[in-house]
Amino acid sequence: MNYNIIEKTPFKTIVFDFDGTLAQLNIDFSNMHRCVIDLIAGFDVNPGGLENLFVLEMIEAGRKLIALSHPGQETVFLKNAYELIRNIEIEGAKRGKLFDGTEEMMNELKTHNIKIGVVTRNCIDAVKILCPRIEDFCGAVITREATRKVKPNPEQLKIALKELDADPAHTAMVGDHPMDISTGKDVGTYTIGVLTGYADENLLRKAGADIILDNATKVTELISRQGKAKILTTGIYWIFRGLKFEPDAEIGQKGTLCKGLD
Questions:
Q1: For 50, 156, 224, 260, which has the most beta carbons within 10 A of its beta carbon?
Q2: Which domain holds residue 52?
Q3: What pTM did the predictor assign?
Q4: Pick from 11, 32, 7, 8: which is nearest to 191 by CA?
Q5: For the segment 229-242, what is each residue's pLDDT rounded down to a tens digit?
Q6: What number is the average pLDDT over the span 142-156?
């Protein structure tokens, strides 16, 4: 883990992906793909070549094809397509749950005055089924209803940072998918991959994750670490000023603190 990042650039804002990061990934994407393909074909359009797209990108590509072949029908298609995937997402949410410790982790981040956001391609209704208090914890919850330009387009994360009044240089984007990592990098944030969803460590490293954690609740350990680094830096400053430094008893003497940060 690259701890130097934490000590050089303290995180003031953490933005999380949702499914696979804060909550179990229970969406049946295979069924969702099939249903959207069938819906496109139902408008007498050949969906060939769209099978490998992510669902939202598939819907957009289908909209364009239908607009070319049957002008005006693309609005009907969009309404039906988004209702279809919303129903599947809600069913998945009803079978899912937040990962253990998620709410406690967000509460702890708030005690450290860390701004919290969520950026997800999911719908707001599914998110609130899994986390009814999401807006109590987060200053920004940006679901796909907020923008057509969802991850990996950087626009969705930019909206979250604007709502949070956050500097990308002091923000970490946390997610289980390579698109979370690429989105963060495109916006200029640090990136943290978690091993609780789509990708394994190798995929996240290939995507360029700055840090990889077993799960999102480990973020609190990073914040605690950066707090100790700040205390150490402050102590060294006063030592050089020729003043007596008395470290917090809970942290221990200077030698112990340094060892903990090796």
A1: 156
A2: 29-95
A3: 0.83
A4: 11
A5: 444 343 433 344 44
A6: 95
